[in-house]
Specification:
globular; Immunoglobulin-like; about 40% strand; mainly beta; binds copper (II) ion; 9 strands
C-alpha cells in the first residue's frame, strides 16, 4: 500500500509538470476598481517573455488605445499589475491582452502602440489572447 501511494504521488507530479509545459496562453482577471491606478490580472500564461497590455475597449470588443502595460515572463505569472497611464472611469471596459517581444528594436522595452508590429499581440489559433473587464 505504501509503495502504491508513492507511485501515485510521482505520477501526479509528472502530470502537473507536463500540464505546465503545454499550458495554453491565457489571461485571468476580474472586474475591479482601479482607484489605486493599477489594473491587476490574477494570472497570465505566456509562451515567451512579453507584455500584458491593457487596451480600452467597449461592447464591440475591439482593442482600443493602450492605457497600461506590464512585463510577463514565459510561463505563468501570478498577480500581474499594470500601472495606468491615463485615467479610467468607473463603467469603462478594458481588454487585458498578451503581447510578445517580437518585431521590436529592443528587448525589455515596450515598443507597441495601437496597430504597430513591434511587441504586437500573440495569437493562439489565430485568436488574440485576452480577456475583458469592466471597471467598478
Ligand atoms: Cu493588444
Amino acid at each position: 500500500m505504501k509503495s502504491f501511494a508513492v507511485a501515485a504521488a510521482l505520477t501526479l507530479t509528472a502530470g502537473a509538470a507536463l500540464a505546465d509545459d503545454h499550458a495554453m496562453p491565457m489571461v485571468k482577471a476580474m472586474d475591479q476598481s482601479v482607484s489605486n491606478g493599477v489594473v491587476s490580472a490574477e494570472a497570465v500564461m505566456a509562451e515567451s517573455n512579453g507584455w500584458l497590455v491593457v487596451h480600452r475597449t467597449d461592447a464591440e470588443m475591439k482593442p482600443g488605445p493602450v492605457v497600461g502595460h506590464a512585463p510577463l515572463r514565459a510561463g505563468e505569472t501570478m498577480d500581474v499589475a499594470a500601472i495606468l497611464t491615463e485615467e479610467v472611469a468607473s463603467g469603462d471596459m478594458l481588454m487585458l491582452m498578451v503581447h510578445g517581444e517580437e518585431g521590436g528594436m529592443e528587448t525589455g522595452v515596450f515598443e507597441y502602440t495601437l496597430g504597430a508590429k513591434e511587441d504586437g499581440p500573440i495569437r493562439l489559433d489565430g485568436n488574440l489572447v485576452m480577456t475583458t473587464i469592466t471597471v467598478e
